[in-house]
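Hey, I was hoping to borrow your eyes for a little while. A protein chain has come my way and I'm curious about its shape. Take your time with it, there's no hurry, and the full record follows here:
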Amino acid sequence: MTITLKKSLYRYEFSRGLALLDKRFFKPMPKLKVALIFGGKSTEHQISVLSATSILEKIDKQKYDLRLVKIDIKGNWFLLPGLDITEASTHPITLIPGTNGANILNTSTGQVLDEIDVAFPVLHGVFGEDGTIQGLFKMVNVAFVGCGVFASSACMDKDYTKRILRDADIAIAPYVTLTRADQMTFEEVDRKLGAPLFIKPASLGSSVGVKKVNNKEEFDIALREGFEFDVKVIVEPNIEGREIECAVLGNEHPKGSLPGEIVTQSEFYSFESKYVDKDDAAIQIPVDLPDDQIKLIRETAVRAYQALGCEGLARVDFFLTSDGAAMINEINTIPGFTNISMYPKMWEATGIGYTELLDHLIELGLERYQKEQGLKTVSPESL
């Protein structure tokens, strides 16, 4: 698979080449100023820090002028003084509209500290991949990596993800959505779906708050705990099958990677399996499946991506049953980028290395921004 970088990145390569030919007449173009934004006030704060650490190690610093922006667990923004994620936060900041991008404003002094061309959010969970910060980026008129407002919000909420996929005639696991106002009992849900059941907060990731239940007592406890994280929860039956994932990359013409498989010793792929007990889960990329099933998974992942209006990137998670049926579990619009994360590993197996992948993501953000700049935002009568 080949994805071609476009002009906005080519010009930097070309200008550096000219500068090497004759420094008396040519000067290299300035690097793109990229703000790597990480942390955030979600249950996945520390995973975001790990993802940002991996990106910082792999990104081509000859191409990009990087800024590290840390959001602490209370939601305060800080500009770090250098490129060390472990350094203490020094400048409290916010983003405001600039001339060609966004300005970084020191909220204590009112001084503009810097400007950025592209925001690269690596914020997992709420306030990061749920459309909130994407709306901020659009308000301050800066290009950004990843899905837009609607797709981020819709994919974050598993209830609405399933509704949209179902309407697009894409297979999903059976489910029930419950809020605090719902009075559905364990017996009613059991009759509808069949125990054992999985209860999960509708808008969290990394398997936070997910519980497997077999009886009324476990059901009631899991519901109470689920509502500590979210205003609604999803209840699903236990799906006997393999857990398959596929990475998708692109804007108007997305492509799916070779899929991978997660094999865990636990009852399900929990937070501990992902990030704590590294011996609990094994990853196989590419997955051991017949070519026709691999083709089906890649095509279905792209269909789901497009149905939800995704751009930039997303990871599509499947259940593959023993009879060969593939149903989508969920879609993650800012998947992990740690050194053990599936998304970059699947693209590496498909032929795109980690550093090149970051180039593509930045380019896709710029491409979308340039397209949106050509859209009309006011009526002719108001001009």
Remarks:
- Residues 354-373 form the longest helix (20 residues).
- Residues 1-5, 10-24 have pLDDT under 50 and may be disordered.
